[in-house]
Structure formats: structure tokens, C-alpha cells
Amino acid sequence: MLASVRSAALVGIDAYDVTVEVDATAGLPQWTVVGLPAGSVRESRERVGAALGNSGFAVPPRKLTINLAPADVKKEGTAFDLPIALAILIATGQLTPASVANFLFVGELGLDGSLRSIRGSLCIARHAARVPG
After folding, report:
1. What pLDDT score does 40 carry?
2. For residues 49 and 16, what is the distance between their CA atoms, to the nearest angstrom?
3. How far apart are CA 63 and CA 82, in angstroms?
4. DSSP type of residue 59
5. DSSP states of the chain as a string?
6. In angstroms, how far is CA 53 from the centroid of its own chain?
7. How far is 130 from 37, CA to CA, in rounded Å?
8. Class for domain 2-130, per CATH?
9. Euclidean distance between CA atoms 56 and 25, whole angstroms
10. pLDDT digit string (tens) for 19-42?
11. At residue 96, what are phi and psi to the nearest 5 degrees?
12. For position 19, what pLDDT does the model report?
């Protein structure tokens, strides 16, 4: 199943929309992150997997392809943890798409599932208010 969650990233102090897409399919369990992710974004696999498991959600043994669009702009930081987790929950049927509609999500996840602050949250909040989703 395919899921999509609205997020955002920064270039300097300017925020722009990023769509986090997750495709969950049968196959060998693995997570692949595409869309020019920096090292901290690729590491989100470990944070998100632990956060979901420690929060009581099932981490399905599926092949997960995680796309951060647009793919031509490098994504940095840990702000994609929360939208990736939400998209995985939608793609695996543990959350409904309607529960994330009309919202923009950013945030780092602790291994226990706690939400941590991110750099540039004010710029992203201003962008979310100006650009309807």
C-alpha cells in the first residue's frame, strides 16, 4: 500500500514542501530511503523502527521504499522521522490517511517514541501557515 504525508525542509531560512511517500510491499524486510537523503535522514530507519516498536506499534516485516520528494533537492536533518513513521503506519494499515490530511509534520523521534525539537521549526511553521496543504 502507498501512503503520503506532507512535511517540509529548509534551505537556509526558507522552507519548502517535502512529500514523504512510503510504499509497503511483500518481500524481504528492508527499508530503502530515496530522494537525496543526507546521512542523518538515512539513519532515520533505526530511530523510526525503534520508536514505532517501543510505542506499541507493529513494525511489519515488509519491503519499505521511502521517497522524499522532490528528489532533486538534498534533505538533511532529523525532521523527517515523524512523517516517515506516520507514513509507515498508514502504509501498513495501522493509521488512516484521513488522520494526517491537511497537516504538515516534522519532528525527530527518540528511540522511546518521544518527540524531539528540530532546527528551523519556526520557519517551517510560517511556511505551513502560508502554503495550504
Report:
1. 82
2. 26
3. 19
4. -
5. -EEEEEEEEEETTEEEEEEEEEEEESSS-EEEEESSB-HHHHTHHHHHHHHHHHTT----SSEEEEEEESTTS-B-SSTTHHHHHHHHHHHTTSS-GGGTTT-----EE-TTS-EE--TTHHHHHHHHHHS--
6. 16
7. 26
8. alpha beta
9. 22
10. 999 999 999 999 999 998 888 888
11. -90, 145
12. 98
| pLDDT digits 0-9 by tens, 37-69 | 888 888 899 999 999 999 999 988 999 999 999
Residues 6+ apart with CB under 8 A from 81: 44, 47, 48, 51, 107, 108, 109
Cell of 40: 542523518
The predicted model scores a pTM of: 0.96
Asked whether residue 133 carries a pLDDT value surpassing 80, the answer given is no
Contacts of 92 (CB under 8 A, 6+ apart): 1, 24, 58, 60, 62
Task: Tell the residue number behind the cell numbers 519532528, with chain if given.
Answer: 107
* Percentage of residues in the chain having pLDDT higher than 90: 86
